[in-house]
Amino acid sequence: MPVHASGTGPQRLQKVLAAAGHGSRRACEDLIRVGRVTVDGRVAHLGDRADPSEQVIEVDGVRVRPASRTVVYLLNKPRGYVCTAKDESGRPAATSLVPPRPRVFTVGRLDKDTEGLILLTNDGDLAQRVAHPRWQLEKTYVASVAGVMGDRALGRLRRGVQLEDGLAKPARAKILARRKASTLVEIVVAEGRNRLVRRLLDAVGHPVRRLVRVAIGPLRDERLEPGKWRRLSQSEIGALERAAVPPRGVRRG
Length: 253
Prior knowledge:
By secondary structure, this protein is of the alpha+beta class. Helix content is 20%, strand content 30%. Helix 1 crosses helix 2 (25-33). The radius of gyration is 21 Å and the shape is elongated.
C-alpha cells in the first residue's frame, strides 16, 4: 500500500507504517513487536530502519508500497461509459472522469450499461489482486430485474446455473424487494467472468433492467455521486488488500 512518508532513504520502520495507515506510531511499534512486520522476508524488530522505495516491507504478508508510485481512485461510473482507454465507437471512457496524470487504468471492467463503483490505479500488483478471480475478492451488485422472482428461482440462483462457459454461482444472493412487475436483488460474486451477474439472472428467467455495483470487497460509498471520484485512503487500500483471500498455496504480496 502507498507510503506518504516524507524524505527518502531508510526511515524508522514505525514511521513508514504509520504513514501507510497502520495506526499511530505506538500501534505500529506493537505490530513490529509481535512479529507481524517483515523487511525483505525477515521478521523486523523495534529500532529497524528501512527504505520503502528499495525494500519489500510487509504487514501480515501485504506489501507496503511507496506513495510516489501508486495512486488509487474510487469512481462511481455512470451508465454509458466504457472501461477501455479508447473506444472505436467514440463512447466516453471511465478514465476521462479522473485526473489525466498520473495515467491510470480501470481495475477489471463494468460493461457500458452497468453503473457503480470501480477502481482505477497505476499499480499493476494491486489491480491483479482485486480483479483476478483467484484472489476471491467479492463484488456486490444490486440489480433490478424483470418479473417477480420467487423462492424457487432464488434457490436455483444460489445453487448455481450452467452457463456457456461452465457452472457459475454467486457467493451470496438475496431479494431486497418484490414489486408489481420487478424485483430488487442483491448478488455477490467473487468471479471475474464477462457480464456474469447479467448472465446468471437471465439464466433463472429474470433479465436485468438496471445493474449497479455497490461494493468492492469492504469498499462502499453511498455518498459518491455518479461521475464523481475520490482517492482511496491508506487504510482503505490496506483493507482492500487484506480482503483479497489468496488461494491455498499462493502467497500474498
